[in-house]
Automatic annotation (TrEMBL), chains A, C:
NCBIfam families registered for this protein in UniProt: PA_CoA_Oxy3 (TIGR02158)
Gene name for this UniProt entry: paaC
N-terminal signal peptide: none
GO cellular component: cytosol
Name of the protein in its database record: Phenylacetate-CoA oxygenase subunit PaaC
Keyword tags: Oxidoreductase
GO molecular function terms attached to this record: phenylacetyl-CoA 1,2-epoxidase activity
GO BP annotations, alphabetical order: phenylacetate catabolic process
Annotated PANTHER family: 1,2-PHENYLACETYL-COA EPOXIDASE, SUBUNIT C (PTHR30458:SF0), PHENYLACETIC ACID DEGRADATION PROTEIN PAA (PTHR30458)
Pfam families: PaaA_PaaC
Superkingdom of origin organism: Bacteria
Automatic annotation (TrEMBL), chains B, D:
Catalytic activity, EC: 1.14.13.149
UniProt xrefs under Pfam families: PaaA_PaaC
GO molecular function, one term: phenylacetyl-CoA 1,2-epoxidase activity
Species: Kribbella sandramycini
This protein's record includes keyword Ribonucleoprotein: no
Superkingdom of origin: Bacteria
GO biological process: phenylacetate catabolic process
Listed SUPFAM superfamilies: Ferritin-like (SSF47240)
GO CC, any one term: cytosol
This protein's UniProt keywords: Oxidoreductase
Biological classification of the source: Bacteria, Bacillati, Actinomycetota, Actinomycetes, Propionibacteriales
Record protein name field: 1,2-phenylacetyl-CoA epoxidase subunit A
Length: 244, 309, 244, 309
């Protein structure tokens, strides 16, 4: 399998697993407007996943569904941040702020890359994730500067997920070899600037962590992903070869 | 001189639209609130049985379609609560009544979704029945409700086609898939027929609603329309409608069919269905889990307001 | 498939699904002794499931694993009571009291049936479930007559699960046709006597229900079973034909 | 006349057993409490990574074996807490220290179990290393601990064989299964080597523990013993140990191997491993969720006591 395949799968898996978690909020959100908003966001993420996995699949004769439903856990390449269980609504918004801000910076660069397909996907996606960032920002501000309880929960969520943000900016040999790949390491400073500005404004304090989780890009995940995949894949795997 | 109530009756008689600021009889207002609220509640409770399969949808394309559909239902809930609010109640009140079990939602959502084929069956049968029920509501005498229904019906006919398409794919798939489709039809057929409510002879609210231009057709008329529309579609799918009494009557151009077991309907309406408890408990939990979020949003908004003032 | 197969699968599925839920308590019990006790109970249930599914499988050329891992949700024949999510510890003990008391009465009769294998399985199992009944009884008494909170939780659990007990005593055509099958309907009176005696002693009040759930014996389950099976079956289905 | 402490030293020197009512230096008592508690904590935290696969075990036979194994670990926890209690502490205190992060458990359990093969690898490598560590403890100078270890070791050697057997089946299975086994060995090899603690040169508690007959062999001795035992087993499985420096030395009869990255060990011990937070949070949640149950049991017991009195 090619570097381009591997790289595209990373981005596709991020979006796919994020979509799966976002969708768990549907019919469980704090208010109906948020069911709609999270539905939109989940659909955007799923759409990105499909475009990326279709493209990856086209490089080695597989379909998006082959990649989503018939790979093992160790073959998934998403960030651990995306696979963590939902937690409360503050966790959902902290994750969305961290992840969408990263995606925004990444897609912004990717849309000028030499690979037309990736550039095209990124060009469409960058607008979507700008909305995600905005949505998350509004909620982090509201929750951080809302009630005592919401402040406490927002702070806890920002801290709980912070140790999963380092992974977003890891460079590796694949990134070095593949010209069209966006090196995420240099995006970190701007990501921190943006995210910390929101956190500061929210009256929450800046999270710190002595440890940063890693492994998603090489298929070493948290113990949560296995359960997510069992659910995601069970029907498809129960009917091998079927069309839906 | 015409009283404001005369003007209401004149509008109704002329098949015109009553708008929020128009005078209306209290019974008309109450009937509408009850009906629109029940309709809105059905949209949001209806998210659950289908939402149950989003995480397990067997292809990404189907997953996306299903997510969009369930999200549309949340949107329908929003329009409908907004329509109800034009009658002087607010959404929070209506939700409290739902959560307390004092307002109903469509009993169809008290049946479980047990296989992926159920997602097809719900789209095809349940949305199909909803459309038959709702298309006449696009001409309902109350303007905001009628306009909400136009939008709802348009999306639902889209959902209905998607449901049919899911089943069509299954019916042309493996034997296991075909069996799954038949099983879904077997389970959803009778509850779908009951979506039109009790038979006319036993229907309580109908007459006055007809007079007010809220309701346009009787339950049995609509049920017949649904059967006539659906049976030929089952034939196209190659599925058997689970009714030994089903016969096409050349003379009338309609299908004769066995009446569903309304005793079951009454039980489910009373709260005694397979999923009544689960649906309400899930809804209440989401609401309670979200209370701190809504409070925070209100507190934040109040602080901004203060800052501006 | 024969009536004997169908009947044996009912009992086997009850035990299998119960074991799956019991096992979820391991490493999550209120105290270490209870991790051990629930481990024992889960193992007993799983052992019964294996004996029964092995026997059922032997009737039509399948293995216990074929039956456990490669049937669809609609082919499972267990009571809905067994598949409900665990809830709190009071729910676990209420379920165990209801279910094990039923199993005890059933196995007691089954051990004298004309089918030697079923009689043998029942003869071994009846001793195991007598211990389960005893364990559940002790806890229902402690929780019912412990603190105010435990009383409230125990009462809530007894009531929440009561609507799932009617299904245990349903007779049907299969039971009528199959001579070795134990008709559960006549067991109801003694079951109620035993269970209500425990509830009375626990200071809880007797639960009532206007509705009794049904469907498990014909494969109409709650929406919970599908998720349980996705987890149970995912690895096996991911490697069709493999030996473990 | 001999003092009671002289008698302690005499017993140690004669390789005899110290029993709970015997005099012992405070340092001896504290060291033992710390070690036995850490060992007990390791048993109960160790239930989690394996418990993670009970619901997904790919055959019913393996599911039963795994359930029994995890249940044995709970049992080991019980014996070990009981052994610690003979030294004048109680289990509740020790659990509080664990939950507060003030007592440790084996760092090996801070790695995730990602595939079914990890259950084989844990049995084979982790229980294998535990046995190498623990067999000498069956001759530990403190009687209750030594006796608990006899029982624990017997069960663990059983677990170790089961783990090997899981991998043996995978290695003789499909290519996918074999790859899963190799992957598990690749991930668990280095953490297993670290189970013997820091290299002797950096080991802090060892010397005094040796003098007291608590410890019988150095970390590096035990590590070597483990490597010598395990590498031939890997050969039988047809798996490659992920160490390019691994060579059999004919002269010494031992394998030469690359030292693990102890910096990682120190990080994980400090709390910075992939699952430290998850393991402790799960444990604390089970404890907190169970508080009302333990309170109820105590209240009930008190009522019975009163009734009898």
């Amino acid at each position: 399998m090619s570097d381009l395949f591997d790289y595209t799968v990373r981005l596709g898996d991020d979006a796919l697993i994020a979509a799966q978690r976002t969708a768990e909020w549907i019919a469980a959100a704090p208010q109906l407007e948020e069911d709609v908003a999270l539905g939109n966001i989940g659909l955007d993420q799923l759409g990105q996943a499909r475009s990326l996995l279709q493209y990856a699949g086209s490089l080695d004769g597989r379909t998006e569904d082959d990649l989503a439903y018939f790979r093992e856990e160790r073959e998934f390449r998403n960030l651990q941040l995306c696979e963590l269980p939902n937690g409360d609504f503050a966790h959902a918004m902290a994750r969305l702020l961290y992840f969408a801000t990263y995606q925004h910076l990444l897609y912004e660069e990717l849309r000028t890359c030499a690979d037309e397909t990736l550039a095209g996907v990124a060009g469409k996606a960058v607008k979507e994730v700008a909305y995600h960032v905005d949505h998350a920002t509004q909620w982090v501000l509201r929750l951080g500067d809302g009630t005592e309880e919401s402040h406490r929960r927002m702070q806890a969520a920002l801290e709980a997920l912070w140790p999963y943000t380092g992974e977003m900016f890891e460079s590796d040999e694949l990134i070095g070899r593949l010209a069209v790949a966006v090196d995420p390491a240099p995006l970190r400073a701007e990501w921190e600037r943006r995210v910390l500005a929101v956190i500061d404004e929210s009256t929450c304090s800046r999270p710190e962590a002595s440890y940063q989780h890693t492994g998603g890009r090489s298929g070493r995940h948290t113990e949560h992903l296995g359960y997510l995949l069992a659910e995601l894949q069970h029907v498809a795997r129960s009917h091998p070869g079927a069309t839906w | 001189m015409l009283t404001r109530m005369d003007s209401f009756q004149a509008t109704i008689d002329a098949d015109g639209r009553i708008e929020p600021r128009d005078a209306m009889p209290e019974g008309y207002r109450k009937t509408l609130i009850r009906q629109i609220a029940q309709h809105a509640h059905s949209e949001i409770i209806g998210m659950q049985p289908e939402g149950n399969w989003i995480s397990r949808a067997p292809s990404l394309r189907r997953k996306a379609i299903l997510m969009a559909k369930v999200q549309d239902e949340a949107g329908h809930g929003l329009y409908l609560y907004a329509a109800a609010e034009t009658l002087g109640v607010d959404r929070a009140e209506l939700l409290d009544l739902l959560h307390a079990g004092r307002q109903k939602y469509s009993s169809i959502f008290n049946y479980p979704t047990l296989t992926w084929a159920d997602i097809g069956a719900i789209g095809w049968l349940v949305d199909g029945a909803a459309i038959v029920n709702q298309v006449p509501l696009c001409r309902c005498s109350y303007g905001p409700y009628a306009r909400a229904m136009v939008r709802v019906c348009k999306e639902e006919s889209f959902h209905q086609r998607q449901g049919f398409e899911i089943l069509h794919t299954l019916c042309n798939g493996t034997p296991g898939q075909k069996a799954m489709a038949q099983d879904a039809l077997d389970r959803w057929w009778w509850p779908s027929l009951m979506m039109f409510g009790p038979p006319d002879a036993a229907s309580t609210h109908s007459e006055q609603s007809m007079a007010w231009g809220i309701k346009r057709h009787s339950n049995d008329e609509l049920r017949q329309r649904f059967v006539d529309m659906t049976v030929p579609q089952a034939d196209i799918l190659g599925l058997r409608v689970p009714d030994d009494g089903l016969v096409y009557d050349d003379a009338t151009g309609h299908y004769t069919f066995t009446e569903p077991d309304y005793a079951e309907l009454y039980e489910v309406v009373k709260g005694n269905g397979p999923c009544n408890e689960k649906r309400l408990a899930h809804r209440v939990k989401a609401h309670e889990d979200g209370a701190w979020v809504r409070e925070a949003a209100a507190a934040y908004a109040a602080k901004r307001q203060e800052a501006v003032a």
